């Protein structure tokens, strides 16, 4: 093939076409932002197996003209049977476009939820400067660090801006749904700022279908100000033919609390990077993750917790299950800076292999420059326990059912922590039918 | 009900059972006693269907059906229950979910409908009280964090829920204090009926004060070397195994 088919050209050229598309009129700031990111994308290189962060996943990156095509602009979609309305605030994007009809935004001023097209200059500036900070500070969603953030920005049609005002506690969940269908690529973007003492639950769901090739990228940029709390549930459970590369970047100020629950099911290529920066004392984060792959699916979890300030706490627990010939990657990095004394960190990653052809690669990375810290990590890879299986079977339970129960039991503790009953039940059902299917064919 | 003829079994190539003959009729309680290493636990595991043991000869039938080739889960559905000497802990699977799946698996096999949630809960609460365990245990993982005694009582609780035809208690009395022993015995006695049978494998005579057996058998070196009535247990208590020509280990 000719040189134009190489990365990043195919994405640069295709995304530039967006700028002249009459059907996609965006706010002027967004057009300017997109163009600046397209220029940056030109300098990005595609990760290869020699790129440490991508060594297990680069071979799943499929580059083609088809996948670089911006998805058709639409706000109409085929019914999404998987969708459960949580009866809270609802923001729906279809192929990267905000659907006002399907969304339910706040009626009062206690909370701001807006599409990017409605942002004031100040709000737009928050989004832009968080991606491209001036001066010496860096951003984890900077395109030079993460090329898929550049692709996301270069194709950005719209996004959602959420601001939870000072001392406001939002009980209803904020549900953001990204639905994609067809052939090409679409960008999902969330910017959330929780002001001092604010509390909210953000739920991100990806859904969709494709007969050909579809790549969704996501960038979620969360800022927690002093004393605020964000609960973040992320469901990366869309149809397996869809490739997804997403990054969630979290910045935490003094005494803030961030709790994440990331549920990932395998696909052609699935990659999620979760990066948390604890920049002021007293900030706490807990990151939970459940990941299941079957057939020839692939899921790559990269997490990074950066303890920049002293007296912060982080806890992390990921449990992964790989069956058939599937592959899961867990890379958990904890970086404790020199000034981050009195840090407490704990990371656990437990893995279950359901077949001898499945693969799980787990790598805890601890980089510690402070001398007065507590930091523990533990990782295990195992199979179902024969004694436990036997015990269940002696009670009349079939071997398939027993294996399903034990496999679900392996992740149950984390699933039970999901702080929304409806979402939790949905995930329980989904996991159950998935795991059942894994053992039915045996 | 249960007929064992010339049963021989080995584990990893070592012959453990060297020709067992035993007949258990409906309603009977049999105690199997013997020193450590005599094959008592092997016999329990072989009857329940543990695949770690190879059956190298003989025949076992339950109500005329051969158990030798019968899968473990089917034996349970046919009415065999083994109370384990060392029950495993299964975090992540709740006792309730476990019991309900077990009951429904057995009911399905017998062509019965699934148990409804209300009667199930009612029965589970009733039975857990019967073995003197905190009803909060129902929601916990199977045996998760249970003490030795609590695990044994949980075995009895499961037995009461599943109402087996043939209950095999594998050293259920070991490690129990007197109160827990009474709870276990009450559970077994509550289950006794003209249709049900019990095999108690035990090292000590103590349990037999509370569950009075119809027959006592002495197992040594893979064979039943003496059988008798309940008075045989007392004789063993008094004289040890030595008088039967067995070296106690």
Descriptors for this entry?
heterodimer; A: alpha/beta; ten-stranded mixed beta sheet; nine-stranded mixed beta sheet; B: 249 residues; alpha/beta; 12 strands; 29% strand; globular
Low-confidence stretches of chain A: none
Q: Given the helix and strand composition of chain B, which structural class is it?
A: alpha/beta
Query: Regions of chain B with pLDDT < 50 over 5+ consecutive residues?
Result: none
Q: What is the C-level CATH assignment of chain B?
A: Alpha Beta
Give the amount of beta strand of chain A, in percent.
Answer: 35-45%
Oligomer: heterodimer
Helix count of chain B equals 7
- Radius of gyration of chain A (CA) equals 21 Å
The ordered string of helix (H) and strand (E) elements of chain A is: HHHEEEHHEEEEEEEEEEEEEEEEHHH
Lateral strand order in the biggest sheet of chain A: 2-1-5-7-9-11-13-15-17-19
Question: What distance lies between the first and last C-alpha atoms of chain A, to the nearest angstrom?
Answer: 42 Å
Number of domains of chain B: 1
Report on this model:
- The complex is a heterodimer of chains A (442) and B (249).
- Chain A has helices at 9-18, 28-42, 65-68, 121-131, 147-154, 386-393, 399-415, 421-440; strands at residues 89-94, 97-98, 112-115, 160-164, 174-181, 184-194, 199-209, 214-224, 229-236, 242-252, 257-265, 270-278, 284-293, 298-307, 313-322, 327-336, 344-353, 359-368, 374-382.
- By secondary structure, chain A is an alpha/beta fold.
- In chain A, the strands form two sheets. A ten-stranded mixed sheet of chain A has the order 2-1-5-7-9-11-13-15-17-19, with helices on one face.
- Chain A is globular and about 65 Å long.
- Chain A starts with 8 loop residues before the first helix and ends with a helix.
- By secondary structure, chain B is of the alpha/beta class.
- Chain B has a single domain (2-244), classed as P-loop containing nucleotide triphosphate hydrolases (Rossmann fold, 3-Layer(aba) Sandwich).
- Helices cover 33% and strands 29% of the residues of chain B.
- Chain B is built from seven helices and twelve strands.
- A six-stranded mixed sheet of chain B has the order 6-9-10-3-11-12, with helices on both faces. A four-stranded antiparallel sheet of chain B has the order 2-1-4-5.
- In chain B, strand 11 (215-220) and strand 12 form a beta hairpin.
- In chain B, helix 4 crosses helix 5 and helix 5 runs parallel beside helix 6 (178-191).
- The model of chain B has no long low-confidence stretch (mean pLDDT 93).
- Classes of the chains: A alpha/beta (442), B alpha/beta (249).
- Chain A binds chain B through residues 385, 387-388, 390-399, 401, 405-406, 408-413, and chain B through 48-51, 71-73, 75-77, 81-82, 84, 87-88, 90-93, 97-98, 101-102, 105-106, 109, 141-142, 158, 162.
